[in-house]
Automatic annotation (TrEMBL):
Transmembrane segments: 12-37, 70-89
InterPro entries membership: HATPase_C_sf, HATPase_dom, His_kinase_dom, HisK_dim/P_dom, HisK_dim/P_sf, HssS/ArlS-like, Sig_transdc_His_kin-like_C
Keyword Secreted: no
Protein name per Swiss-Prot or TrEMBL: histidine kinase
Lineage, top ranks: Bacteria, Bacillati, Bacillota, Clostridia, Peptostreptococcales
A molecular function (GO) term: phosphorelay sensor kinase activity
CC per GO annotation: plasma membrane
Keyword vocabulary terms for this entry: ATP-binding, Cell membrane, Kinase, Membrane, Nucleotide-binding, Phosphoprotein, Transferase, Transmembrane, Transmembrane helix, Two-component regulatory system
Catalysed reactions listed for this entry: ATP + protein L-histidine = ADP + protein N-phospho-L-histidine
Domain Histidine kinase: 156-373
EC number: 2.7.13.3
Length: 374
């Protein structure tokens, strides 16, 4: 029962608010009238001013015309109505302003903000409407961004798929039309078409994986791994590439084992991406360092190269899919700009963190992964 009354209190308050305003206005008017009557009576008796005597005389004349006390009723009603209008004007003005603002929002102006000079429930309602509209505005912005990303993705994918495909069709049509000179040229054209087909295959697989990761449909087959051992294996397996590119790989591994729970295949792919990038874009620096460190319960891996720095303007976008630094875009080494996006997704799937810093001394890709509590 108590709760029922408590729940109905705001409703009752709203129902009776105008009546309370009216009672308050009438009481105030009655009080004022009483004070006015007494003051006028006292002044009439003592005043030396003609103005007051004339006014009171005129009032008495009006009173006699209007059947006695009816004049008091008229004055009382006028004063009450004036007070009631003053009190309820602000509230009504705010409600009208609220209705107009909401109508503008409903017509699509989501930048509109309701600003009321009021306190209490109407202000609360206005604030809640402002919050809902702000959320709607954010959702709309996010949706527009997602739409733009989709459009960009389709444009990039079409471009990146078309380039190798055009070469494949070109070389295969030379073969099909018997336009090659001899067996050697035939083999040469075939091998180019084959290489381009492999690039295409790689790109499609990368795209497929990235989409799966970003849609959260990729599962991890985690096992216990020693990160130091894993990096050592990757470094020794990449030895021939280091030699080919004339780069020395230096490893500075921590004494401690760095045991983590991870999907070995995916993690190898992430670190291979970072190491091949370090070779591809930093081989002029001659050295590549792979450093591991333990900090509290975090394993830190740094892949460092000493080549040309990544321009500061590109750093915030380096992990975006299809993003390539201007110079790299003009290189013809099969890069698609998906490598770092995939790497970041793999690290984040492992609840880790990846960051990059680059200046004229060196470029560092730092990966942080949670250590397994054994
Ligand atoms: P891709 O290598 O296919 O272009 P990535 O996503 O792996 O794509 O890299 C994006 C861009 O980041 C590259 O085009 C390159 O310009 C730059 N980059 C990546 N790694 C390095 C690095 N270690 N040193 C300098 N630049 C790098």
């Amino acid at each position: 029962m108590k709760n029922k009354i408590k729940a109905n209190l705001p409703i009752l308050r709203y129902m009776f608010m105008p009546i309370i305003y009216l009672i308050f206005s009438c009481s105030l008017a009655a009080g004022l009238l009483y004070i006015l009557y007494n003051k006028a009576d006292a002044l009439y008796r003592t005043s030396k001013y003609d103005f007051i005597t004339y006014s009171v005389d005129y009032f008495m004349y009006l009173k006699s015309l209007l059947n006695g006390d009816l004049i008091y009723v008229i004055i009382f009603t006028i004063i009450s109505l004036c007070i009631y209008t003053i009190i309820s004007y602000k509230k009504s003005k705010n409600i009208i302003s609220l209705i107009e603002n909401v109508e503008e929002m409903a017509n699509g102006n989501l930048n509109n903000v309701i600003d009321l000079n009021d306190a209490g429930n109407i202000k609360k309602l206005a604030n809640n409407i402002n919050n809902i509209v702000a959320q709607l505005r954010n959702i709309t912005i996010e949706e527009r961004k997602a739409q733009q990303t989709k459009t960009d993705l389709i444009t990039n994918v079409s471009h990146d798929l078309r380039t190798p495909l055009t070469s494949i069709i070109g070389y295969l049509s030379i073969i099909e039309d018997d336009k090659y000179k001899d067996e050697v040229q035939l083999r040469y054209y075939t091998s180019i078409a084959y290489e381009k087909a492999k690039t295409l295959n790689l790109l499609i697989n990368d795209l497929f994986d990235l989409t799966k990761m970003q849609n959260n449909t990729m599962t991890l087959n985690t096992i216990q791994i020693d990160l130091v051992e894993l990096l050592g294996q990757i470094a020794s397996q990449s030895e021939y590439i280091f030699k080919n590119e004339n780069v020395e790989c230096r490893t500075k591994f921590s004494e401690d084992k760095l045991i983590i729970q991870a999907d070995a295949i995916k993690l190898v792919r992430a670190f291979e991406n970072l190491i091949t990038n370090a070779i591809k874009y930093g081989k002029e620096g001659k050295y590549i360092d792979i450093v591991t460190k333990k900090e509290d319960n975090i394993a830190i891996v740094k892949i460092v190269n000493y080549g040309e720095p990544i321009p500061t303007i590109d750093l915030p976008h380096i992990f975006d899919r299809f993003y390539r630094v201007e110079k790299s875009r003009n290189r013809n080494d099969g890069g698609s700009g998906l490598g770092l996006a995939i790497t970041k997704n793999i690290i984040e799937l492992h609840e880790g963190h990846i960051s990059v810093s680059s200046d004229y001394d060196c470029t560092i890709f730092e990966v942080q992964l949670k250590l397994d509590n054994i």
